[in-house]
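Task: encode each sequence below as structure tokens.

Item 1
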Amino acid sequence: MINLLLQGGANPNAQRGGESALHIAVRSGCLDCVKALVEAGADVNAKTKDGKTPLHMAKFKGQHEVAAYLLSHGVVLPTPAPISMKLSNADVEKGRTYFTHVCHGCHNAEPQGETKTGPNLWGVVGRDKASMASMRYSDTLLGWEGVWTYEDLNTYLFGPMLTTPGVKMETPGVPDETERVNVIAYLRTLSDKPIPRP
């Protein structure tokens, strides 16, 4: 049916309810539909009104073939500029305020604090990724090895669904660099022995 519609002049980037036709095809799990739309010019980097990309949706739903196809057809994963050297000028109090207003609803930041929707972030800088025993992590986060460095936090918080598609943290992140640096500087303080700044 999609091929017939496209042959009849349908717009492969048409939107309905804040989603593109490609998002709807991914949500339905139809690889052939995804291929038809992409071959007709659908934007593989399109975002829904809440920031979900087709790749994020495919990975989130475990649609490995769809994800692989999208990756091989023009998906761009943004990479924010490095921020480590900017941490020395960060405003920790502004980071704390931002965290309190935006992040605290889902994340605890107290020593021995319980998990909420997301993991407790006490000691997050330098901690192994996806390492809180009480949390159920996405395959994406489980596959990202190593500890949370300043730059890994920078990449993740820039836009979790954009930089690390498939994660469960379906939020727009902290796209503003100054705010992101301030938040990361605040996260650094959530420790008995904060890791030195670069």
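Item 2
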Amino acid sequence: MSYRLSDVQARISTVHQLESVVSAMRGIAAARSREARSRLDGIRACAAMIGMAIGDALLLDERNVQPAPADAGANTHVIVVLCAEQGFVGTFNEHVVEAAARLQQTGATDYFVIGDRGLVVAAEHGLTAGWSAPMVAHADEVGVLADRITEALYERLESGLATRVTVLHAVPQLATAIEIVQQSLLPFDFTRFALPVRHLAPLVTLPPHRLLARLAEEYVYTQLCEAIMLSFAAENEARMRAMIAARTNVHDTLNRLIGDSRRLRQEEITAEIVELASGSLTASGKRRQRRSPP
């Protein structure tokens, strides 16, 4: 397909603008990924502190606290699927949703799909979301989203609509492949917390079983905060990789257009030279005709 030089130059200008947009999106994704990673230590320190409090509270509880067994007759598995809210993430959502589909076992399964883009991909894979919410766009929103998910989960647990809860999310990594991890949230396993070595039990104002229940809820909240923050960082790293691939394609397109521009410019120069030479020969012939005798 032939283009005029002006058309090619207009396309070169458009591609330069697109390159600026791609570079800006890559920079924003990199900044958000770094911010998310920087907040993980604080979340994990909070989880460790709550874990120590659970160990202290276990000293006060004379019962042997074990994970609550799931009722085989009402085995409802809630899978929290953390996807992306915005686009330009490649196959990020597909990997997470496919992992959720493989996790489905016997019994009823209820999906909590986080992220509007993931909600669309889940519907394409035949997964019906029983509850959904937008994924965070900034690291400051992680706590609010984790609180909403925690409330929705405990509402189902208290009403007998859920017996197990698992969260699926991606984790940031240097490799190009997307790694999906799963983490069991409920039933809550108190046996994983070590009992502290102390002579005096801590003073509390709540019955031990109520204290343990509230601490368990807080620990689940911190686990969700960590999962959301990891997923947010992984989402932005996937966006960075997509922008790097887009920038490569932009550069290839720009090089091709510059080559076309040079060729068309050379053709125009050649045509002008030919036109000038033809005009000069015609004028010279007319002058010779006027000078020749009749």
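Check on item 2: The longest strand covers residues 164-171. The radius of gyration is 32 Å.
End of task.
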